[in-house]
Amino acid sequence: MDNQNNAGKCPVMHGGNTAVGSDNMDWWPESLNFDILHQHDRKTNPMGEDFDYREEVRKLDFDALKKDLHALMTDSQDWWPADWGHYGGLFIRMAWHAAGTYRIADGRGGGGTGNQRFAPISSWPDNASLDKARRLLWPIKKKYGNKISWADLIILAGNVAYESMGLRTFGFAFGREDIWHPEKDIYWGAEKEWLAPSDARYEDVDKPETMENPLAAVQMGLIYVNPEGVNGNPDPLKTAEQVRVTFARMAMNDEETAALTVGGHTVGKCHGNGDAAALGPAPEAADVEEQGFGWSNPNQGGKASKAVTSGIEGAWTKHPTKFDMGYFDALLDHEWALQKSPAGANQWEPVDMKEEDKPVDASDPSIRHNPIMTDADMAMKVDPSYRACLDKFRADPAYFQDTFARAWFKLTHRDMGPKPRYIGPEVPDEELIWQDPVPEGSTAYSVELVKKKIAETDLSIAEMVSTAWDSARTFRGSDMRGGANGARIRLAPQKDWEGNEPDRLAKVLKVYDKISADTSASLADIIVLGGSVGIEQAAKAAGHDIHVPFAPGRGDATDAQTDADSFEPLEPVADGFRNWQKKDYAVKPEELLLDRAQLLGLTAPEMTALVGGMRVLGTNHGGSKHGVLTEREGQLTNDFFVNLTDMANSWKPTGSNLYEIRDRKTDQKKWTATRADLVFGSNSILRAYAEVYAQDDNEQKFVKDFVAAWAKVMNADRFDLQ
User: Fold this and answer.
1) What are the Cα distances from residue 197, in Å, to 102, 153, 224, 233, 374?
2) Is 620 exposed, middle or buried (0-12, 13-18, 19+ CB in 10 A)?
3) How many helices (H) and strands (E) does the chain have?
4) What digits encode the pLDDT tens for the residues 350-374?
5) CB atoms closer than 10 angstroms to residue 135
6) Are 91 and 160 in contact (CB under 8 A)?
7) Annotated catalytic sites, by residue?
8) CA 619 to CA 471: how far, in whole Å?
9) Which of 8, 163, 393, 486 could be disulfide-bonded to 400 (CB atoms 3.0-4.6 Å)?
10) pTM exceeding the 0.85 threshold for the entire prediction
């Protein structure tokens, strides 16, 4: 055999795992990407199916861990020396940039998963050098092992950093469970280059409120706003408006935003004392010898003062390792002028400041430098609302410290969900409205009696099932908000949402109110039980005797326990499970369905079973018949799948999101459908699931799977059961 032509060839498929074109999405970018439903499969998790982090962390020696973290703050390492011998600023930035990716629109981002360890976040330009912070934490993670997640450790390090510099923090909660590969469910923007001009995210960059939802950061690769100004052009008043919108999209008001800005910049420094162009590639692009490090600096020479990250250079205050009131003295008592950092970045420096009021060099205490302010800092001084906050804080230091501590706690815990998910000795006793508190519900009632009373009403199966679904579908696994617990569907704003059909909802709730008054069952429990009654009746009508699992104990939240404005982002604009969307969107209906399924924590098979079941139960919004592919509406059958896959039918578009299903021989119209229906026959993956449920021998399996998926959604927010 002549092997000469094969000499030097790679013995494996070259680029098979990384090359463009190796994934179906490269060839057919309009296809549905189901990775978001299955991205955290057990196959990626090295801990095994029996590992329960929330149980492990309860075994942690909390005091010993904090003692080690406090010691680490001033244990400067030669390979990455600490500014002024204290790592506090670095660890605060690490924790802040982990938590600060959270946005309220879809609840995604935040520090709750340890996602800062993975691309793209690990390699964002705004996260330069945070790879060093996590590596400094590695000996502690190694020591405490399974009892502390990276997600918890990253946030805790920031908390301890503040404590070590003099802040009395509001508290801390453990319970964040790590993920083990990059998240694919988070849309960070459509730009294809880092730090692309922010105009791409706005209908009008001069109107920050026009920034594309659900985004909060103004440019690709930034956490918040550009510290040099809008698109890098200094203008504090314009920056103030971007700051306001960005922080509002993180659920922060003006006072919280001002407190976070001041408290965040009271300690630490910016780094730009060198040539930014000399830095090596980000961690994800660095070669193997870097061992996960990025942004290598050939000119640093082992000195903290020579670090380059943002390009801005300098500390904000005279004492960057102390949490004090120095920020107010520097910003408000001096005039500031635009200057250039050694790296060429725009920054503000004082026009005239006494030498003794300046901070010393991060490596050499015999040298003093001007403090600096970013454009966002100057915004705090010139914007009337922010300036009023700063004046109030300065007049009452205790109020400022408490306001900042609370805002920091909110920033670092917002994506953890309700307080029952909090673990550890430093969980605050105070109940905070943004934690969506729900009173404990009663279990001292007869579930069967309540079900009997529901069954005796004149409510239809569709009314009972739809009401239960609408109550539970608000749940978001992204930040653990929403769900049926609390029965907030009966309160503003949910009772008036178009997707909840207010008239139908009011009718059902009036009936349930009487049942609640006659028993000790909460409305939240009754709403969910109503769905169970409807499904059991529908299954029985189809010849299946089933029991829908139910766990009592949900409570009824009050208006006083409900921050109505913060619930607006949970309003559904589309619900493919009920074949409804508020209006036409650029995003396809099937993509909106996929997004909702992911937030609910569903797999693709679970999503398929739920859609097929809810169609035949007649739960479409407004009683629409689109996709109700059955002559036995109200019975829990597999007819949706049988008729969708029946080759006796043909399919014809009649509008942008409307189709007719016709008899192939007679051309007689049989049903109408939407894209959210037909995708289960057109997409190869979903069709494979649909065919399983359409088989003659799988109707029982379908009913079983539907009930299991239904119970999963109804109990998604029952953290007391998990």
Assistant:
1) 21, 34, 14, 11, 18
2) buried
3) 24, 9
4) 999 999 999 999 999 999 999 999 9
5) 15
6) yes
7) 97
8) 14
9) 393
10) yes
